[in-house]
Amino acid sequence: MDRALYVAMTGATQTMRAQAVNNNNIANASTLGFRAEIAALQSDAVNGPGQPTRVNAVAVETGWDSSSGALVQTGNPLDVAMRDNSWLGVQAPDGTEAYTRAGDLRVNALGQLQTGAGHLVLGDGGPISIPPNSSVNIGADGTLSIVPLGQDPATMASVGRLKVVDADPTQLQRGSDGLMRAVPGATLNPSSGNAVSSGVLESSNVNLPQTMVNMIGLARQFELQVKMMKTIEDNATAAQSVMRMS
User: Fold this and answer.
1) Is 213 helix (H, G, I), strand (E, B) or coil?
2) Enclosing domain of residue 58
3) Which one in 49, 60, 71, 204 has a CA-CA gap of 20 to 30 Å to 32?
4) DSSP-derived secondary structure letter, 69
5) How many domains are there within the chain?
6) Cβ distance 140 to 127 under 8 Å?
7) Exposed, middle or buried by CB within 10 Å (0-12, 13-18, 19+), for 26?
8) Which cell locations does it reside in (predicted)?
9) How far is CA 101 from CA 21, 104, 144, 195, in A?
10) pLDDT tens, residue by residue, 17-66
11) 3-state SS, residue 84
């Protein structure tokens, strides 16, 4: 069998993988704080006997887009957006500490502060609990203050502080659950100063028009590779016919 068939097959398989990454970005175009994944195809020479004339295409994940998404004013005091390179600490489903840019916070039935996705929000001492109150305020440094239920607004009290850390893209890696975690050996320092804006949410940073163009390009590339496999099959059939005639 012509080895070119394997080259075309490998290219089609890797194009499908790149398309899966691209489609995941499209699916999360409206997910708060989402960072687009980046995948690219690179050449990989086929090793072995014969001339080095064939090259495989290999899909490689080159990381994620660290640019910020657009900020949307909501007026909700529990909605927060972090400044560039700052991340909100949350408790992942497996109990580990993770980080997100999704700041759509809410208080659950147990009085715990959580994100819209259901992840508990961390403070300096673990998950944050909010006592019964008539109003909640989040300061620019992440401090949570409430007016206790039935009390005068002048009795506002602090009940905790959001865990917000500074991290550049090289210090974080994306988990299978979509949350970010520190790479092994990295130390993330707490954010200082005004790292939080209240009443604001950060949207996804997916460039939807460009992502749609990528989807079309990958689909055409896959179609070309399938046509190549069909051409190789036709050539093999023709060669077998010639040999039978001879």
Assistant:
1) helix
2) 4-66+206-245
3) 60
4) P
5) 2
6) no
7) middle
8) Bacterial flagellum basal body
9) 20, 9, 18, 12
10) 889 999 999 999 999 999 999 877 666 676 666 666 666 666 666 688 88
11) coil
